[in-house]
Design goal:
Elements: E1 5-12, H1 18-28, H2 34-46, H3 63-68, E2 75-82, E3 89-96, H4 104-111, E4 116-122, H5 129-140, E5 145-151, H6 160-174, E6 182-187, H7 214-220, E7 235-236, E8 239-241, E9 254-258, E10 263-265, E11 269-273, E12 277-286, E13 289-291, E14 293-295, E15 299-304, E16 315-317, E17 325-335, E18 346-351, E19 354-368, E20 373-375, E21 386-398, E22 410-414, E23 421-427
Parallel strand pairs: 1-3, 1-4, 4-5, 5-6
Antiparallel strand pairs: 2-3, 7-16, 8-9, 9-15, 10-14, 11-12, 11-16, 12-13, 12-15, 17-21, 17-23, 18-19, 18-22, 19-20, 19-21, 22-23
Amino acid sequence: MTLDLLRFTTAGSVDDGKSTLIGRLLYDTKQVFDDQLEHVAEASVRRGGEGALDLALLTDGLRAEREQGITIDVAYRYFSTVALDGSSGRRFIIADCPGHQQYTRNMVTGASTADLAVILLDARHGVLEQSKRHAFISALLGIPHLVVAVNKMDLVDYSQERFDEIVAEFSQFAGKLGARADLVYIPISALHGDNVVEPSSNLSWYENPAGPTLLSLLETVEVAYDHPFQTPARFPVQWVIRPQGVPGAADYRGYAGQLASGALRAGEEVVVLPGGQRTKIAAIDTYDGELEAALAPMSVTLRLQDEIDISRGEMICRPDEAPEPTRELEADICWMAEAPLRPGGRYQIKHTTRSVSAIVEGLLDSVDVHTLQRGDAPQEMGLNDIGKVRLRTSAPLFVDPYSRNRRTGSFILIDEASNGTVGAGMICAPDA
């Protein structure tokens, strides 16, 4: 049985318990090896523990993180669950994102591919500035599911009244986000395991049809790729395969890549951009053999009926749902570099498998994460700033608005001198 995959991220303010929550998920689902537990136990004692395991140490891997007791880098962890009868379960990739404001760019990186975001709130402190920042970024990134986990309920005597106050406060803020994400609230205690993997008698007053515990919700929530036929097919070509010296493969020509969205079938008509040539899919190849159809996010090789000059960065899609090639973009950008972004700046833009040069024609606005208002156009954007930018590219890109397609609506900006990633962009719909 092949289990489906859910990518989710945890975010929130400093000391809200993100790393402890992930440690609890790993520990209570029996995903931690004995030698790891021994190492964490030793580290817990060195940090002044009194025999209790500090589960946050399962994810805070950098020396500086353990010394300061904070998360700096995005920590990725992997685990899976399977029902006792083997009938259900799911694979998970967790991105534990930093809480400090100066690491906002790390949060954007960790959440960029997430299907679900868990925003942690400390039950004692409620909704803080950084909690709002991370919720705003989650909405901006178009994450389809948002879970607000009210943590440390043990420190407020598992009070339903306090939980209801926080739900009301966050709901008022969430109404301003304009997010389309499903929103669920769950009271938990990551330290003691209440409502994380197992239901808690301390929180017997909590009922939610989405799932009584965080894990049960994670196991059952619908992932973005559950309905691939509802989105246009987008196949960016990554590699042209021409086997050399392989018996019987002299005439083989295949176009390899990952289906960014939608689905393609053998025998159907497609168009290749930017040339506009039309042909049909002769076959869909994988390591295990041919397929009748490919669904996102599968990695496959397409063989076409006609010989067409195709190279990396071109896109294969259906003729009736092809994106419009464009050289002018407006996009929301999170700036990730110490050197500011200014009009006239030149960068490499990487969109799917296509890379072209781009110039910044103008900065259009900036976002105040406190009020969620867009202000006047700034003269420059600094580290961790978010705002709308107009770009012009040296060659056409085949894009969709980010609100319609996260894979073909996103890109990164690369500094041509250092080859470092300096910005992450989300393409806006026309007149957005």
